[in-house]
């Protein structure tokens, strides 16, 4: 937990792109509202959120494909103002790739270089195209037609077409959405290693929380046009800012509670059934505050014995569903006052739970220090 | 009830096959045979085997010249007018107006080309536009019965046939390709030349072929707006068959016209293939 992540290592890197109070409206619809965000050189940042949350609009404003209604966008210290897309030092990998169907793979990859003025030497273009194709492991595919390439290959052509221009920022708009699950995993690994080799800043738009968690140095979680939370994947997972963040990244049991006492960043809170638990508390809380708390399903444990260990609070609840998911078993339980609770039981722990079947009442154990108080939505 | 593949093919192709055999192949064969014959003394056809009719084609050179100049010129003019219009309709216009505007393109077809050509006779005639120009002190213009009048007439008549194929090819163009081109550093005019134009060439080819082939066989518009001074091969054919009753010479001229069209169309297709428009990958789109 305390090991420094890459994101923290690079916190001193210079800012390469910046949103300053950036707002985009389409008629009455606010697609992005007062975005404030600094993206650092060499960083892998993801815009995460459901469709319509403004993440793609944010990316398109960076690319110059949309103009902000208010506020500014800076790239490498330069205010982009109304600079059109073709004058910006960024390149994009489009959703479904948008490859030129009337050009070969090599012609597609060389397109950006051919737009340079003064013109780039043809031999130099060919050399760089070859190198880019080599980088994405498509060395011999230059003369091929786009329609002769598989989905995964097309994705790599789109990647090569962007990185060959050595952009200051590479923008990726849901690049993996069209790939099947296995290929997606491979491409994620490839993208990560590519980013490390090239050292280019990557900005990824995705609705897939696993993708964002596994690839990003930092995640910018968005909802309804606004930035909800910015942080490392661990920050977002362990310290979600509010109900929305807790629910969108991973799953969480969310409960209403009343603060009883606070100390050292922790709070003792009372739940609706009168029992109390100790949770992490970031903000200023006073006894008597009504708050929402969240705890991850894998932070809870089940026990078939009646004894509750010291350092935990127990709740008697009835198992209503058990779903086998390979590495763990997802259990849904019903508690007469707290309602539904989800507990993910690891395979190894299952052996110590004889007879914990649907219909059986067991103990849900909540260790002190697990869970946290959520902020306002 | 299963129908064998053979029977199915016969059922599908039979009606059209009979139609074309009876009304296209057979007449063409007749015309080909007649073209080697002679004019009967009282007019019509007399059997013979001579190349005399073909040797005499030079006497009707003016008709070929007019057709071979005005048909390509009309096609080109129609293309230059239709492309921006189709581009506007497919790319720029607010989609809620698109259908209404497309209907406007077809509206002229609701009136017969004959009546619309009559209208042009008055517009281009002595008391039409030339009077207006003279009153404005812009000089003395004679428009009717000139190549210009015929060009105006054919472009006017065939413009919609050019607009639609070009519109369709531009409409199905993936607009994200233009965003990709811009993102990769192409200013708008260059992304037009490098992406939009090449990807719309199939529509340009279809429209041009359609208009060009129809113009090569045009009869009505030169007849009305050319006033016997600017005539196409079609007008010469009517004259030969109905006035001079020289069926053999008319047949030789018909055969030459069809052969010319085949050659021009083949050359055009080759040209398009060479500039990449007929690439199979565009066909797939």
Automatic annotation (TrEMBL), chain A:
Record has Translocase as a keyword: yes
UniProt KW Ribosomal protein keyword: no
Keyword field: ATP-binding, Cell membrane, Membrane, Nucleotide-binding, Translocase, Transport
One GO BP annotation here? putrescine transport
What's the short name of a Pfam family annotated to this entry? Answer: ABC_tran
InterPro entries named in the record: AAA+_ATPase, ABC_SmlMolc_Importer, ABC_transporter-like_ATP-bd, ABC_transporter-like_CS, Mo/tungstate-bd_C_term_dom, P-loop_NTPase, PotA-like, Transp-assoc_OB_typ2
Span of domain ABC transporter: 17-249
From the UniProt record, list the reaction(s) this protein catalyses.
ATP + H2O + polyamine-[polyamine-binding protein]Side 1 = ADP + phosphate + polyamineSide 2 + [polyamine-binding protein]Side 1
One GO MF term: ABC-type polyamine transporter activity
Give the EC number(s) listed in the UniProt record.
7.6.2.11
Query: What's any one GO cellular component for it?
Result: ATP-binding cassette (ABC) transporter complex
Subunit field text: The complex is composed of two ATP-binding proteins (PotA), two transmembrane proteins (PotB and PotC) and a solute-binding protein (PotD).
Tell me the protein family, please: Belongs to the ABC transporter superfamily. Spermidine/putrescine importer (TC 3.A.1.11.1) family.
Name of this chain's protein:
Spermidine/putrescine import ATP-binding protein PotA
Q: What organism does this protein naturally occur in?
A: Paragemmobacter straminiformis
TrEMBL record, chain B:
Query: Quick one: a GO cellular component term?
Result: plasma membrane
Q: Do the record's keywords include Methyltransferase?
A: no
Organism whose genome encodes this protein = Paragemmobacter straminiformis
- Check the record and name the InterPro entries matching this protein: MetI-like, MetI-like_sf
Where is the ABC transmembrane type-1 domain positioned along the sequence?
A: 64-268
* PROSITE patterns linked: ABC_TM1
Q: Which family does it belong to?
A: Belongs to the binding-protein-dependent transport system permease family. CysTW subfamily.
Cellular location(s): Cell membrane
What are the UniProt keywords, alphabetically? Cell membrane, Membrane, Transmembrane, Transmembrane helix, Transport
**Single GO biological process annotation from the record:** transmembrane transport
Which chain regions cross the lipid bilayer? Answer: 12-36, 69-89, 101-123, 143-168, 199-221, 247-269
PANTHER family noted in UniProt: INNER MEMBRANE ABC TRANSPORTER PERMEASE PROTEIN YDCU-RELATED-RELATED, PUTRESCINE TRANSPORT SYSTEM PERMEASE PROTEIN POTH
Name the record gives this protein: ABC transporter permease
Pfam families in the cross-refs: BPD_transp_1 (PF00528)
Entry membrane topology: Multi-pass membrane protein
